[in-house]
Amino acid sequence: ETGVTQTPRHLVMGMTNKKSLKCEQHLGHNAMYWYKQSAKKPLELMFVYNFKEQTENNSVPSRFSPECPNSSHLFLHLHTLQPEDSALYLCASSQELGLAGNTIYFGEGSWLTVV
Amino acid sequence: GQQVMQIPQYQHVQEGEDFTTYCNSSTTLSNIQWYKQRPGGHPVFLIQLVKSGEVKKQKRLTFQFGEAKKNSSLHITATQTTDVGTYFCAVGGSSNTGKLIFGQGTTLQVKP
User: Fold this and answer.
1) Which of A55, A104, B67, B89 is the most buried (most CB within 10 A)?
2) Contact yes or no for A78/A86 (Cβ under 8 A)
């Protein structure tokens, strides 16, 4: 139990589908993140939210759309994805941005396969 | 932007041998963190180093922060099969927002 829960754990979707990944944290944190992890690349930061406000969009294609309705929940809406988007998508949270030593707590990840 | 280089990318050792991974930055770091990701799992926080020359130990794991705060190392003494996984260092983004940038990771395989 990490305190950060992601659903679904596995998702297979077609390139024309629309789906969403959900993340919920029970740690009382105020910053939430989406990371992408694929086989040949290091952990890639996608989006950052601090107190529900998006502070970072790391040049992510518009087919990925984040939503943060409150500090405990984070969504990643997916539409018209490409096969190269297949990866492990990790949600994470931390106390808040701007703190020294901002430790990240990861969820178990959502394995996404685009066919 | 902030970048950190981690070497080696892969390491295969015999159980009982030692293992070291290194993390290097071109800029001075305020702090550095280390994470471990088991196969099929998610990254888990191990430790944070803040002070120049700092050395911290967790059982068989020794973490060191360089005197110039530009590099760090993780050393495992007498590896065990439970040490298998990928070890990442992570540093703060150049804008000093507290956002972490991860190294490429070192994947450790331990032969029993």
Assistant:
1) B89
2) no
